[in-house]
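Renewal narrative, Specific Aim 1. Our central claim is that a sequence can be written position by position from structural information alone. The example that follows is taken directly from our test logs and has not been curated for this report. It begins with the structure tokens describing the chain, in the order in which they were read.
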């Protein structure tokens, strides 16, 4: 007699968190990078190519980069065929010597000239933010929960990301974005912020006393 087919169904569940992976690429990122891949054709020629491949290298956690030639900044002495790459990491730190060597080897595979690359860490401008927030009366959360939601929003809004180098910050844009913060419970969506007042100033660290030199 025929043996009936037996169907097995399995469910896989991770018992521990997975580390080292990357989240799925956002559709906006796919659209943005597709033209850059096509234009560069796997080579580093223009400034845009160098900055694009710097971010695509996946070395050192670099999230944004900008490239320029030595003729594009105030210099009275030009070195031969230099390409300057300014970068920023998500945590604001610099790349180490091992990561720098890996970047040299990476670019040697795609650059079409004998350009010498100079890696410069972007200068960080710190932002001091003062926020007065009143939550909406009908949102079913405590003051401490509202504080956590708003704090996490601010951290995510101001984090270093692609576009941070040379980017701009508008306080009014952040205020408008905070009014769009939502909280959902039992299928009902609530506005979190009823009133917000923000004030900011830039903080640039400096050495004190000032450095002196002789000539």
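The sequence written for that structure reads:
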């Amino acid at each position: 007699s025929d043996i009936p087919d037996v169907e097995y169904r399995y469910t896989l569940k991770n018992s521990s968190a997975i580390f080292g992976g990357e989240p799925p690429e956002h559709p906006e990122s796919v659209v943005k990078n597709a033209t850059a891949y096509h234009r560069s054709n796997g080579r580093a020629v223009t400034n845009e190519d160098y900055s694009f491949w710097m971010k695509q290298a996946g070395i050192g956690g670099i999230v944004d980069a900008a490239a320029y030639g030595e003729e594009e900044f105030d210099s009275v002495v030009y070195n031969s065929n230099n390409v300057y790459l300014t970068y920023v990491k998500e945590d604001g730190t610099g790349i180490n010597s091992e990561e720098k060597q890996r970047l040299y080897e990476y670019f040697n595979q795609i650059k079409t000239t004998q350009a010498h690359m100079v890696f410069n860490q972007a200068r960080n401008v710190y932002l001091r933010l003062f926020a007065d927030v009143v939550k909406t009366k009908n949102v079913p959360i405590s003051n401490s929960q509202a504080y956590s939601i708003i704090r996490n929003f601010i951290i995510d809004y101001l984090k270093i990301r692609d576009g941070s180098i040379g980017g701009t910050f508008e306080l009014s844009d952040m205020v408008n974005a905070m009014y769009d913060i939502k909280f959902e419970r039992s299928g009902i969506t609530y506005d979190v912020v009823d009133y917000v007042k923000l004030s900011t100033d830039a903080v640039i660290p400096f050495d004190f006393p000032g450095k002196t030199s002789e000539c």
